[in-house]
Amino acid sequence: MTTPAHSKGGVNLTAELERLYAESGDPDEFGRCLLGFLDSQAQRLTAEDKGATSFVELLAEQLDRASTATLAAGAMHDLRSLLQVLIAHIDHSRHGLLGMAATASEPEKVTGVLRSIDELRLVAVTMANITRDGVAVQRGAGAGTVVDLPDLLKTTARMHRRVSKGRLRLEDPPRTDVLAPRGALLRVLANLINNAIDVIPDGPEGRITLSAWVATDDVFVQVADNGPGIPPELQAKIFDLFFTTKAKGSGVGLPTCRRLVEGWGGNLQLQSIMGQGTRFTFGVPRA
């Protein structure tokens, strides 16, 4: 059991982290609360000449530990329970629509609603599985799971079909299995795709490409966009905890992605050219 960490000013970081987590109730809000807390404490320590940098480093370390702490495991357990309730309601609604389809005057409209409900159920089931895998990893299990790569990528593309508005294209994936937690893979892909959606042009000219290829012992997966690119002076900071270029960003998404990728033995790489777009590539061991 680790001893609660304190800053030089006597702040119990573990207690503060748990308090902020409980009060926020939302991952993005949690990130914003942490940014405000970090700023206020750093200013205080700077004024007292007690080393703000050391405090920043200590808080970052505590945040990283919190990703595997009991409070995070409990939150994921509760979230999975709620998702299971949501899935039950979706199934009930789908059953009712199937009954209506037999007598509907416009069955094609009912079919369209059923398709939307099926996609909603897919997202809910995927989220439930992600939370299950997250708890398993925290308990020391779940590592080394054999994952069907084509199925994973097709599921990811289907989940993001509507939010990407048809701008996400999946290249024909290689038929191979990989060795990594399925939930962690989905989290990384969802983060990278959502980041790309935020920066690509509106309309059909915007494009995100999801692709994969096999190397000797690894499979490489890539999310590429044709957005504006990341300025060279910011590329070195893009994986820093709390660094964000978004007005409402928390600055924890890409650091989390890198940590998850490194957890299964891979490496998350960035390639970006101004005016041409950005590519994030990571490796996964072949099963």
TrEMBL record:
It comes from the Bacteria. GO terms for molecular function: ATP binding; protein histidine kinase activity. InterPro entries: HATPase_C_sf, HATPase_dom, His_kinase_dom, Sig_transdc_His_kin-like_C. Its EC number is 2.7.13.3. The keyword Metal-binding does not apply. Residues 74-287 form the Histidine kinase domain. One of its GO terms (biological process) is phosphorelay signal transduction system. Keywords: ATP-binding, Kinase, Nucleotide-binding, Phosphoprotein, Transferase, Two-component regulatory system. Signal peptide: none annotated. It catalyses: ATP + protein L-histidine = ADP + protein N-phospho-L-histidine. This is histidine kinase.
